[in-house]
Amino acid sequence: MTDKAWAPLGPEWRRKLPREGPFNREQMLTEFAEGRRVVHVGFVDERRMEDKLERGRWLHQRLREVASSLVGLDVSEEGVRWAREQGLEAHAVDAQSADAVEALGLEPAEVVIAGEVIEHLDAPGPFLQAMRKLLEPTGVLVLTTPNAYRLLNFLSPATGVELIHPDHTAWHSPHTLRNLLERNGWQVEGIAYYRNATPDLDGWKGALTKGARALLRGVGKLAPYWSDGIVVWARPRAEPEAR
Questions:
Q1: Which of 17, 44, 140, 173 has the smallest number of CB atoms closer than 10 Å to its CB?
Q2: Whole-structure pTM value
Q3: Could you tell me the residue ranges of all domains in the chain?
Q4: In this model, does residue 105 exceed pLDDT 70?
Q5: What CATH number was assigned to the domain covering residues 17-235?
């Protein structure tokens, strides 16, 4: 398609996609957390925590191993109760409410990690505003979310199905994430892509899955904007001084 074909839309419609990555998602998040005071939002993994903990694949546990301190926040009271029984610091809260988040009275964190959360929300704008209540002024918010342009999103419709988590409310692109963050008081510092880990499967299903993941990794190196997901990190934008 030529530039003339895009001309009626205007240059403001065309956004250059980032090319950083794809990186290992969990490794990248643990690097952000290393040696820092961390709040992990959405740490409950849909009743799969015990299974992932046994296999060393629960992200919250990996963050706990590297962070100087770690607090878990989630809307799931059952999951929070389970975490507390394991000796973890955790609170049940609606992270879309700035008042509810502030009422927790937590020490301001250096890093807030919200992995695979924003695509589940009814109110992403209020959520991003609430996250400011958790951070110190120079802290960093790290978000991850599935990529609207991931390769599977273009392949699965060929079979007549949509491949999507049943609880998701939105797909996000680098631009929609940047737009949401900037509208809600954040200064974006970086955007990159991540790849998911290969599921632990045995037999022919495992071999087929590993082969498909290897193919997707190869595609991701050539065209990272087709990767599984997006990582974005941002800091609170300084409020203008009152005159």
A1: 17
A2: 0.86
A3: 17-235
A4: yes
A5: 3.40.50.150
